[in-house]
Amino acid sequence: MLPLWIALQFLSSLPIRLPGMPQPQELGRSLLFYPLVGLLFGLLLWALNSVLTGTPLMLHAALLLTAWVLLSGGLHLDGLADSADAWLGGFGDRERTLTIMKDPRSGPIAVVTLVLVLLLKFCALLALIEQQHTAVLLIVPLIGRSALLAVFLTTPYVRPGGLGQALADHLPRKAGWWVLGVSALASVALAGFWVMVLAASGFVWLRRVMIKRLGGTTGDTAGALLELLEVLVLVGVALIVA
Fold first, then answer.
1. Residue ranges making up the domain that contains 191
2. pTM above 0.90, yes or no
3. Which residues does 137 contact at the CB level (< 8 Å), separation at least 6?
4. Fewer Cβ close by (within 10 Å): the C or N end of the chain?
């Protein structure tokens, strides 16, 4: 069960303590549990949504979004901010983009990107609550974290050393494809085939953007991909059910 605890510690702000420093092989296997962590997030958000029934709609949506951000500790939003700064400031140059991505400071484009993403999530949640279509809360975190597994399965990791390299090098690929397939089937069963098509289309496009600029992915761009896919699916569902 250690790979599951590693996945929970890395992807969530839950108080998980590991017995020691994980081996690289255990880090790689932890990727197999990313979709399960996403499903856990979905269950927690769905339960919170039920508890908030009857709360004023805007406050309801704001509390759900706050819980969503807190569950992950803002990890992927940080990757989105770094990627946004790097994409604008990199001027199409690979090395410059990678260098800016390592800078811990956030520029104006990072702030604007975070505001827009959170605003879109809030408005989509508000629309879904109004339409009583909140079952999507179960599936969006699953899709987002399955996308992390998918990007490590299909995309070279371009920054040598560190946690991301260990994940990429030691991911059990055959098992990874099985887990990804089961996650896709679960997504279709819970949300419908068109939601999976929307998520897959967004993944393919975002992956292509990463390949074109960097030749692969980094931890920051993987986090950005997760956040953008979550927004895409939430907004897509909200528009369709409205």
1. 34-241
2. yes
3. 42, 45, 46, 49, 64, 128
4. N
